[in-house]
C-alpha cells in the first residue's frame, strides 16, 4: 500500500508521494521504524511492570492494562531512530518538534470476552489538560500542543489483535469543525457531541503491522480502540510528538499545517 514505507536504509525518509498521502489520508505507516530487538526489550519491561508473564496466560485476567510513559533506554531509542527523526522533520517541520524522551501511554490489550470499556471514536485533544474534567480538554485549528499523533507497535498486530481503527481523511473534517472556534479551540465535549458522525463516511483502516511499525498520524485523526479477539497480547503506545514552540506564521507550512489549510480552503 502507498501509505506504508519499507526503505532498505534506516536514513531514508518518506517519499514525496507518502507525504502527499499523509496530507490527504491523515497518516503514514512506517514499517521497520525501530528494531525487533528494541521491541522485545520493551515488552520485557512492560511484562515486569504489569507483574504478568507471557508464559502464564491464566494470569491475563483483564481485557486492558494501562502503563504510563516509559523513559528507559529501549523506549527512548525506539522513538528516536534516524528513520523516525527524518520523518518527524518531513511531516512536522524541520527543527519544530521536541525529541521524545519517553513513550506512552500503553493500553496493553489482552484476549478477553469482556468489553474493555474504552472503545469509541475520538480525537486526542492537546491542551487545557490541567482541567480535572477531561471532557474540557481542548484542541484548536493550529493544533496547539501536538505536532503528531503516533502509534508505536511493540508487538505484532494482526486484524484480530485489537488494532486501532483509523478513519482515513477524518483529520480534514475535524480541521473544518475546529476553524470557527479560533485560537481558544473546542473542548472534547464539543468535538464529540455527535459521536463524530461527521466522519462516519470515511473509509476505515486497521493499524496493523509487525513489531517495530509506527503510524505517524495527523493530530486531528479520528480513531478508535476495539476489543481483542486474537491469541497474544497487543503492546502499543500512543505518544504525541510535541512541538518545539508556538506556531510561527512566517515559517514554511509543514505537511501537518498544509493538511489543515487545504481542508479549510485557506
Short description:
The protein is an alpha+beta fold and 266 residues long. It contains seven helices and 13 strands. Mean pLDDT is 93; it is low at 5-10.
What does it look like?
The chain is α+β, with helices and mostly antiparallel strands. It has one domain: Sandwich (Jelly Rolls). It contains 7 helices and 13 strands. It has helices at 16-25, 36-50, 73-79, 82-92, 170-178, 188-191, 255-263, and strands spanning 4-5, 27-30, 64-67, 106-109, 138-139, 148-153, 165-167, 186-187, 204-206, 214-217, 223-224, 236-237, 240-241. Strands 1, 2, 6, 10, 12 and 13 form a 6-stranded mixed β-sheet that branches. Helix 1 (16-25) links the parallel strand 1 (4-5) and strand 2 (27-30). Helix 1 crosses helix 7. Residues 5-10 have low confidence and may be disordered.
Key traits:
15% strand; 6-stranded mixed β-sheet; alpha+beta; 3-stranded antiparallel β-sheet; 266 residues; Jelly Rolls; globular
How is this fold's topology laid out?
Layout: E1 4-5, H1 16-25, E2 27-30, H2 36-50, E3 64-67, H3 73-79, H4 82-92, E4 106-109, E5 138-139, E6 148-153, E7 165-167, H5 170-178, E8 186-187, H6 188-191, E9 204-206, E10 214-217, E11 223-224, E12 236-237, E13 240-241, H7 255-263
Parallel strand pairs: 1-2
Antiparallel strand pairs: 2-10, 3-4, 5-8, 6-10, 6-12, 6-13, 7-9, 7-11
Helix pairs in contact: 1-7, 2-3, 5-7
Q: Pairing-aware structural class of the strands and helices?
A: alpha+beta
Silhouette: globular
What's the multimeric state?
single chain
Q: In sequence order, what are the helices and strands, one letter per element?
A: EHEHEHHEEEEHEHEEEEEH
Average pLDDT confidence is 93
Amino acid at each position: 500500500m502507498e501509505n506504508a514505507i519499507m526503505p532498505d536504509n534506516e536514513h531514508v525518509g518518506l517519499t514525496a508521494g507518502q507525504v502527499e498521502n499523509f496530507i490527504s489520508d491523515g497518516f503514514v505507516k512506517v514499517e521497520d521504524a525501530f528494531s525487533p530487538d528494541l521491541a522485545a526489550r520493551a515488552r520485557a519491561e512492560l511484562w515486569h511492570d504489569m507483574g504478568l508473564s507471557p508464559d502464564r496466560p491464566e494470569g491475563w485476567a483483564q481485557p486492558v492494562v494501562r502503563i504510563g510513559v516509559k523513559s528507559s533506554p529501549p523506549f527512548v531509542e525506539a522513538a528516536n531512530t534516524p528513520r523516525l527523526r527524518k520523518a518527524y522533520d518531513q511531516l512536522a517541520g524541520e527543527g519544530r518538534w521536541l525529541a521524545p524522551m519517553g513513550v506512552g501511554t500503553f493500553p496493553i490489550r489482552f484476549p478477553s470476552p469482556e468489553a474493555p470499556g474504552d472503545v469509541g471514536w475520538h480525537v486526542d485533544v492537546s491542551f487545557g489538560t490541567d482541567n480535572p474534567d477531561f471532557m474540557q480538554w481542548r484542541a484548536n485549528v493550529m493544533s496547539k500542543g501536538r505536532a503528531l499523533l503516533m502509534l508505536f507497535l511493540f508487538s505484532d498486530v494482526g486484524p484480530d489483535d485489537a488494532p486501532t481503527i483509523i478513519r482515513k481523511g477524518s483529520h480534514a473534517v475535524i480541521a473544518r469543525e475546529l476553524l470557527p472556534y479560533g485560537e481558544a479551540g473546542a473542548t472534547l465535549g464539543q468535538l464529540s457531541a455527535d459521536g463524530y458522525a461527521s466522519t462516519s463516511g470515511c473509509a476505515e483502516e486497521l493499524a496493523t503491522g509487525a513489531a517495530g511499525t509506527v503510524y505517524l498520524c495527523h493530530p486531528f485523526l479520528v480513531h478508535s480502540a476495539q476489543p481483542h479477539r486474537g491469541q497474544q497480547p497487543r503492546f502499543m503506545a500512543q505518544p504525541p510528538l510535541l512541538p518545539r514552540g508556538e506556531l510561527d506564521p512566517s515559517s514554511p507550512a509543514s505537511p501537518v499545517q498544509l493538511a489543515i489549510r487545504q481542508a479549510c480552503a485557506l
